Input
Amino acid sequence: MSESTSGGAQSVGMDEIYAEAEQWHVNTGNETIHAKRIPGRWRTIKWLAASVWLIFFLGPYLRWDGRQAVLFDIPNRQYHLFGVTVLPQDFWMLSLLLLFFAILLAVATALAGRVYCGYFCFQTVWTDIFTLIEEKLEGSPAQRRKLAESALSARKVRIKVVKHLAWVAIGFVTGFSFVAWFYGADKLWQDFFVGGANVAVYASVVLFTVGTYVLAGWLREQVCFWLCPYARIQGVMLDRTTVVPTYDEQRGEPRGRMRKGETQAAQSLGDCVDCNQCVAVCPTGVDIRNGQQEGCITCGLCIDACNAVMDKLGRPRGLIRYASLDEMEGQSVPALAARPRVWVYGTILVLALSGIIYGLSSLATIELKVLHERAPLFVQLSDGSIQNKYTLKVLNKSSEDLMVSVSVQSAVPVTVSGAEEPIAARHGEVSPGIVFVKIDRTNLEAENMPLTFVATTTLPDGTEVEAIRESAFFGPKP
Amino acid sequence: MAENNPFPGENNTGHFWDGNLRELNNPPPRWWMIAFWVSVAWWVLYAILYPMWPALPGMSDGKEDFTPGILGWSSIKEYEQGMAQVQAVRAQYDEQIAGMSPDQIIADPGLLQYTLASSKVLFGDYCAGCHGSGGQGNPGYPVLADDDWLYGGSLGKITESITNGRKGAMTAHAAILTDDEIDGLSQFVVELADGGGGSEAGWALYNEKGCNACHGVKGDGVLAELPNGEVVTVGAANLTDSIWRFRPGGYESAKHTIKYGVNQPGVDETRDAVMPAFSNVGQLEGKLTPQQIKMLTVYVHQLGGGQ
Output
């Protein structure tokens, strides 16, 4: 935009915007927000971020080794992640995963505000899609408002029915895709439409369809305002160095309508021309010029809107921009590496991530648990030797049935009975076995002696795997 | 009233006291009223679907004294259905077990696991009171987890013990033997238990006083060994190992047993050693079926000392 553009030409463009401005005000929940859609840099980024959700819809159709790549098979308690099968016994990793994402959310909020809300949250993304459909069918915000106020007509009914059907359809696809992660996409397509799936499947799909329709179609920004806990706790996660969409008050104020014919040189007011475009495009209907507030999901759409107006006026962009409070007030902003939060959050992230990587890389094929009998702790046999009883639990995490041999290692000679035959360990199950260990009275060194149980098996491909478990042998005082 | 309302523009009911106290009309929010009426509707629906009201006198059909609801659901029915499911799972194992002998059960790992798991409850109900939860025994009640058996530790002998019960017997020797003889025998028994093999004088006294009639010529309680490996006993303790029938064991304990015997009528201080019969044959209330005895036999045999 060149400096020489005449004031008159600018005003012509602004008239339309001012005509619109009468409409926009902050919504407090009692009316539907019809946000204006305008293109821009943040709008593009928003679409890119939202496209991450395609994984949700397409993921169930990925194949790996002849089965669904990621399948959370709840009835069989097996969770397939590509080549890895995770059993409930490995679920400590899930807590680390949750910790990782919780901290990721915290660190993202501390550094750049509610980026999750603005760009990735399903509520934001689905609402965005729903309102896009609304705009395609009903037209611009002004047309939509007009349609809402108009009397019932065939056209209105037709538009509304198509819109709501489209919403329900999206809700259904959402529920269907969600269930596919748990039920298996192939099987779901086969069973679902002929009534062959179970009640849980249909209930989940119905729940998701209704939930999506109501939350994204009707409640929209009200979810962010009144239902979502994350919006409530953001206040304690932001600080003065957090980068969020911020209105440059010093540059913008005093705001006021641009007078016709006013030139750059004779400008008496601040850069904000009070066109309300930032409010017009806001999906939650807040006025960013009031500062950071609970309704702001930091999606950056107001930045796009303001920049477009500034371009039109020939004024520099960035009246609303991503900036921290300190930056706006001209204070020095510490570097990322100098903020304690970055280090604390970063450390937790790294720890959780390394725990998950360790867990996934060290998933054992078989697991051995040894339960020592407590009543009686030990038994004296008629030849004077002492016998202890152990219940073994062999968990077979492979997809084949295995024969698992158990041996006992000890510093003193032991007689083991009950482990002569290998234990038949069915895949995905825990197989128990009872083993008696006998130690001669003369070899008894202490009331409590260490004992090591070793379970070994040969996998179908010929590799030997073993699981080791420490236990103890109890006896009377020697 | 509205025309002389001193607080115009206020949503009040028109009721005033003392000039300025008035009743305001603040209806609850609409969503609240909707939720309220939905709750009421739910309550009505619930009363139709589920048991809710006590039946009026004369209305109960003799079975249920409440309105059953059109779904016919009740917590007792749900419990019974759950139990039927459990029984259906158990039935397939129980049927197999019914046609098998204890040693066949032990040879089948799956059935053995089922038998051990389900007999644990039986053992807790019928056996643990005396023999301890894990067969660890109690003073006066034998340990079942060791390999020292009064009546034999084979599957057959264990079945016999559970089915018919056992009652030990040992004469009270206080009036038969002199104090010196009782003292000598008591010391001899302690020698045997300590693994010393026993003195010659002790063995002489043991044989002379007829102890070998029950405790065997070797003192191990075995009267005869059958070709099939079973042993013949009368339930007399093995004196040659360090496991004492009557705990805590030792000299004083042995002396007491010799003096007052076991299960002697008329002797106040005699040892009690009675195991009741557990068979329900003859329709005895609260006793065990042959199937249950079979399973308990396997359980006891697998406690650690089965032979």
